Amino acid sequence: MYFGRVVGSVWATIKNPNMEGLRMLVIQPLTPELANTGKPLICTDYTGAGPGDLIYWVRGREASYALLPKEPATDTTVVAIVDSVHLKSSVAPESRPAAAPEPRAAAAAEPRPAAALEPPPAAAPESRPAAVPPPAKGRKPSRKANSC
Amino acid sequence: MLIARVIGELVATYKHPSHEGRKILMVQPLNLDGTDRGVALVALDAVDAGVGDKVLVVTEGFGANTSVGRFLQPIDMAVIGFIDHIELLPGVS
Fold it and tell me: pLDDT digits over B38-65, tens only?
């Protein structure tokens, strides 16, 4: 399984009949410290996760098992909504940035390093705000318990 | 299969029923010299591994399903063993 965040949704009106009624989410893979890594991808959804939620997804044939008895033409499915990530910074190698004490704070700061990498600030707003929407207000308290 | 180190645990209240009752571990694949290799993965625990353990991770569905004793379930990675020692030919790293 792979760890990531929901950053959007995909609609498709014409698709394989077995895909009818399934939600499709745009997922941004994350490192354990909640930094973006790799390219976004599309996953079918088992959980009902919404934008901003941390999730993990299954890849391969097993992805369609989550949606049995349907047999959709999917190779990635979101199978869980992650409440918190508990990391032991003592086992994190030096190559990894120091684990943030509060993951939500790290998530809030997430767009900034990306923007810093792109010299023209105007380049960031065109995709970043949609890519990393603010977390749902209602769910936030449960995430406050996170610790790294 | 991959050599990896357990670096943390995930807590997920809402998840597929086949993931209930097993620890959900964050594992970092390692090179032979112990450095990080690629991005961290999420794997179900089949051997009661804990944070800091060097483990063997299976990254394919059938192996993962059978190791946790569940079949036709959306599980594609599982921790299936502890690594005590790796012996290599001289010059291999």
Answer: 999 999 999 999 899 999 999 998 999 9
Q: Which domain covers residue A125, as residue numbers?
A: 100-143
The CA-based angle A137-A141-A143, given to 5 degrees, is: 100
The verdict on residue B63 lying in a domain is yes
Whether the upstream peptide bond of residue A141 has omega within 30° of 0, thus cis, is no
Report yes or no: B27 at the A interface, CB cutoff 8 Å.
Answer: no
Question: How far, in Å, CA of A94 to CA of A11, rounded?
Answer: 42
Residue B31 contacts residue B66 (beta carbons within 8 Å): no
Q: Is residue B87 part of a domain?
A: no
Spatial neighbors of A42 by CB under 8 A, at least 6 apart, are: A10, A24, A25, A26, A27, A76
Domain that holds residue B41: 2-11+21-82
Tell whether B42 is covered by a domain: yes
pTM of the model: 0.70
Interface of B with A in 57-76 (CB under 8 A): 60-61, 64-65, 72-76
- Window from A3-17, A116-130, B24-38, B69-83 with minimum mean pLDDT: A116-130
